[in-house]
Each structure stands twice: as structure tokens, then as C-alpha cells.
């Protein structure tokens, strides 16, 4: 199957989001205390597991997008919304906008982009 350029861009964005979630996972494990506005080490095993799982899912989704699987479109929509919900929970429970700003912006742009008719047509979900 031929892969449109938009789907290729989505695959690369999924790789970037996997990388961002891996960085957040390392921050919650206390390995990267110098990133962010909070000084010192923060340890939260629950958030580390959650963001580690999200990093794995984004990497898996990038592979699905690269192959233009029909199920990848729906899975991308669900994971993007789930990631936005996790970022919102992090904001409500004491995180700062600096911690999740890039993730929220990229996820919102991906969600808007995948709802366009041309992208849906590439996955034959019309």
C-alpha cells in the first residue's frame, strides 16, 4: 500500500511523542532532575509506569502508521485522547504547564489533523 506524506509525518510525530513520554518517565523516576521548573528529584512510580507504557504504545503506533494499518487511525485517535487526559490529570494533581505543554500542543494538533477527510481516506475509514 502506498503511504501518503501525511501518514509518514504522523508516524514521525508518533516517534517524537514516544520520545517525549520516555523523557517524562525518566523525570518521574528521578533521573532527569534538571529538566523542568521543579528542582530536585521527583519520584513517582505510578506516573513513571504510566508514561513508560505510553512511550511503548506510541512506538508501537508509529510502526502501525508506517505500515498504514486500517486500525491505526482509530487507535491513534484513542491514544491521543488518552494522552491528553493523562496530561490534564497531571496538571490537576500538581504539575505545571511547563511539564506538559509540548505534549498537549502536539497531541491536540495530531487529533485535529487525523479528523481531516483526506487523512481518514488514506486509512479507508470513510
From TrEMBL:
It comes from the Archaea. The chain crosses the membrane at residues 7-30, 42-61, 73-98, 104-123. Keywords: Membrane, Transmembrane, Transmembrane helix. The keyword Transmembrane applies. This is Integral membrane protein. It comes from Methanosarcina barkeri 3. The lineage of its organism: Archaea, Methanobacteriati, Methanobacteriota, Stenosarchaea group, Methanomicrobia.
Amino acid at each position: 500500500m502506498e503511504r501518503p506524506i501525511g501518514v509518514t509525518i504522523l508516524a514521525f510525530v508518533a516517534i517524537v511523542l514516544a520520545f517525549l513520554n520516555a523523557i517524562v518517565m525518566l523525570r518521574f523516576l528521578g533521573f532527569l532532575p534538571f529538566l523542568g521548573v521543579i528542582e530536585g528529584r521527583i519520584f513517582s512510580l505510578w506516573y513513571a509506569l504510566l508514561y513508560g507504557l505510553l512511550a511503548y504504545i506510541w512506538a508501537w503506533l508509529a510502526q502501525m502508521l508506517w505500515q498504514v494499518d486500517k486500525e491505526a487511525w482509530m487507535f491513534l485517535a484513542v491514544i491521543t485522547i488518552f494522552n491528553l487526559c493523562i496530561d490534564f490529570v497531571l496538571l490537576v494533581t500538581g504539575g505545571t504547564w511547563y511539564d506538559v505543554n509540548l505534549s498537549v500542543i502536539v497531541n491536540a494538533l495530531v487529533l485535529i489533523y487525523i479528523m481531516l477527510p483526506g487523512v481518514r481516506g488514506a486509512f479507508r475509514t470513510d
